[in-house]
């Protein structure tokens, strides 16, 4: 058991150096002590104020992280340096001085630093922190390695957490952790092999899209009504089955908060006349899969077969029936949902779910593996860079307003073997496993002018 705890301690990773901005619920106001608040507001409070799992690291990890960077002295603007190295963002709520994604939590004998959902599911755009926006700047591999080393561990992870910055091996986390649990969520050892792969290269979808979906995740395998699926990150070795039962009501409120979220509005000028033309083109060419928008919106919830969509199949094939069967037979798949038969098991699909496009301007890079940095590339397969890097900053200067997405620097040659792993992860090479930028060629038949019109319309969503 000691070895099990030490291994899992790598998986779920002075706070005063970070400044929180405010402490208000989603409504923008603090409720009076006796005032009734909505489930969504309760969910916001639970999400931003509760440590659902124990801490893995000591409080020394942030003040001393720089010692793992190869630096001879602590950087002068250390707060910014930490945020930029790991792709973290300031918390727009009180968070004990920590950035979003990190959280003060109890350890066995004291208090330390752990993680929460916002590590991957919150980011910033145009200089503003946004809960629910996938963190496309995150270097989760460096975060876990460095913090483990600060605490005296080797930093060797049980599998690769990220192959390229801004993506994660989220599927691998679920497969690995569930392997340590019996169906009733009691711990088991040794770990059951459920087909772990760590080359899926997953981009994080926006939370606000959940309100429209009947099924979620890239392959559309999970019923969107499921609350327990949101709790998979709680599979910390010290989390007991009773803890899952205890916190399930809070996650029902959190789910209500997630589906209450609205995407940020495009903050720059929009050519309205061009957008009107783009809307007509979009409805003719794109709405069948991605739905229509406005007051009477529609969303078809379609899964497009792999041979039709043509995008990288690794993510779809990388989580197979072995894991699906184990999940469906576990506590996660036996959810009491109020229908005739209890249980929300995973389902097998033939491809990838075409997502709603609300707030798409903010969710670059695109495709399930984050292989295409701009919307222009999504609509023109010939414009997609084969190998590129970017700043991983999220301010106006880093944003491409013409092509809509992130400004990138195309690279001709593969990265040098002399690069540190941290620097190598900044390069997206579409020739690598799980990272193809092919497929979704539906916009190739449009003219450049028509693509520009569609892009202008997409800014309004």
Automatic annotation (TrEMBL):
Gene3D superfamilies registered for this protein in UniProt: Cytochrome c-like domain (1.10.760.10)
Keyword field: Heme, Iron, Metal-binding, Signal
Molecular function in Gene Ontology: cytochrome-c peroxidase activity; electron transfer activity; heme binding; metal ion binding
Positions of the UniProt region annotated as Disordered: 412-449
Residue ranges of every copy of the Cytochrome c domain listed in the record: 273-461
SUPFAM superfamilies linked: Cytochrome c (SSF46626)
Keyword tRNA processing: no
InterPro entries (alphabetical): Cyt_c-like_dom (IPR009056), Cyt_c-like_dom_sf (IPR036909), Cytochrome_c_Peroxidase/MauG (IPR051395)
Signal peptide boundaries: 1-19
Domain of life: Bacteria
Biased composition (Basic and acidic residues): 412-429
One Pfam family linked to the record: RoxA-like_Cyt-c
Protein known as: Cytochrome c domain-containing protein
Source organism: Gemmata massiliana
Phylogenetic classification of the source organism: Bacteria, Pseudomonadati, Planctomycetota, Planctomycetia, Gemmatales
């Amino acid at each position: 058991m000691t070895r099990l705890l030490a291994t899992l301690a790598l998986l779920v990773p002075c706070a005063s150096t970070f400044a929180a901005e405010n402490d208000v619920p989603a409504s923008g106001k603090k409720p009076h002590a006796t005032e009734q608040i909505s489930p969504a507001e309760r969910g916001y409070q639970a999400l931003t104020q509760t440590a659902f799992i124990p801490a893995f690291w000591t409080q020394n990890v942030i003040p001393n992280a720089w010692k793992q960077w190869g630096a001879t002295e602590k950087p002068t603007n250390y707060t910014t340096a930490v945020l930029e190295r790991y792709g973290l963002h300031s918390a727009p709520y009180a968070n004990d001085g920590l950035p979003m994604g990190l959280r003060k939590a109890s350890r066995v004998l004291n208090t330390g630093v752990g993680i929460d959902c916002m590590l991957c599911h919150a980011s910033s755009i145009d200089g503003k922190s946004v809960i629910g926006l996938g963190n496309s700047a995150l270097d989760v591999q460096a975060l876990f390695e460095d913090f483990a080393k600060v605490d005296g561990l080797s930093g060797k992870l049980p599998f690769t957490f990220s192959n390229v910055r801004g993506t994660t091996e989220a599927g691998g986390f679920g497969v690995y952790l569930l392997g340590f649990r019996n169906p009733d969520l009691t711990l088991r050892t040794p770990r059951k092999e459920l087909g772990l792969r760590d080359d899926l290269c997953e981009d994080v979808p926006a939370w606000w899209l959940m309100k429209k979906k009947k099924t979620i995740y890239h392959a559309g395998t999970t019923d969107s009504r499921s609350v327990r699926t949101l709790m998979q990150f709680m599979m910390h070795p010290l989390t007991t089955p009773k803890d899952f039962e205890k916190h399930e009501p809070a996650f029902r409120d959190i789910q209500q908060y997630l589906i209450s979220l609205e995407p940020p509005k495009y903050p720059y000028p929009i050519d309205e006349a061009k957008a009107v033309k783009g809307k007509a083109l979009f409805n003719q060419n794109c709405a069948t899969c991605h739905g229509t928008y406005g007051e009477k919106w529609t969303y078809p919830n379609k899964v497009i077969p792999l041979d039709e969509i043509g995008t990288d199949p690794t993510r779809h094939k990388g989580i197979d029936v072995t894991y699906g069967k184990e999940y469906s037979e576990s506590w996660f798949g036996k959810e009491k949902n109020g229908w005739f038969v209890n249980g929300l098991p995973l389902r097998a699909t033939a491809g990838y779910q075409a997502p709603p496009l609300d707030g798409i301007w903010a969710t670059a890079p695109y495709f399930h593996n984050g292989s295409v940095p701009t919307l222009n590339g999504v609509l023109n397969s010939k414009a997609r860079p084969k190998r590129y890097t970017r700043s991983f900053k999220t301010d106006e200067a880093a944003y491409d307003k013409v092509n809509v997405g992130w400004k990138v620097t195309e690279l001709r040659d593969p990265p040098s073997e002399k690069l540190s792993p941290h620097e190598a992860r900044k390069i997206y090479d579409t020739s690598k496993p799980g990272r193809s930028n092919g497929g979704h060629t539906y916009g190739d038949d449009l003219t450049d002018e028509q693509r520009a019109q569609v892009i202008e319309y997409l800014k309004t969503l």
